[in-house]
Amino acid sequence: MSIKTESFDSAFGRIHEVGTRLTIPIDDDEYMVYRVEVANHRFGSSSLVTFYLDKYNSSPEHKTVYQSASAYLSVDEAKQIMQALQQAIKEADDE
C-alpha cells in the first residue's frame, strides 16, 4: 500500500485553491482510504489555510460512503497545528 500524492489548483468564481491531496490506503484492496487535502484558500484579497479529511469506502459490496471534516484556519492557527504535528511526530519517532 502506498500513499498517492497529487497537487491541485482550482478556481470557482472568486475562490481559488492551490494545494496538495494525499490518498492514504486503509486496507489492502484500497477500497477504504483517507483523503487529506491541505490548501491555500483565497477569496479576493483574504487568504486562509484549508484542511479537509475524508474517509472514503468504495467497496463494491457497499454504497460509496464518505465521512468528512474540514477546517478553515488563519495562518497563525495553521502554524500552531503544524507545530503540534511536528512535536507528535518527533515524540513518536523517538520511541
> Over the alpha carbons, how many angstroms does the gyration radius reach?
16 Å
Please, what is the average pLDDT?
88
Number of helices: 1
Fraction of residues in helices?
A: 10-25%
Measure the end-to-end span: 24 Å
Order of helices and strands: EEEEEH
What strand order characterises the main sheet? 1-2-3-4-5
Strand content: over 45%
General shape: flat
Q: What structural class is derived from the secondary structure elements?
A: alpha+beta
Kindly list the characteristics that best describe this protein:
56% strand; alpha+beta; 95 residues; single chain
Question: What does this molecule look like?
Answer:
The chain contains one helix and five strands; from the N terminus they run βββββα. By secondary structure, it is α+β, with helices and mostly antiparallel strands. It has a five-stranded antiparallel beta sheet with strand order 1-2-3-4-5. Strand 1 and strand 2 (15-25) form a beta hairpin. The model has no long low-confidence stretch (mean pLDDT 88).
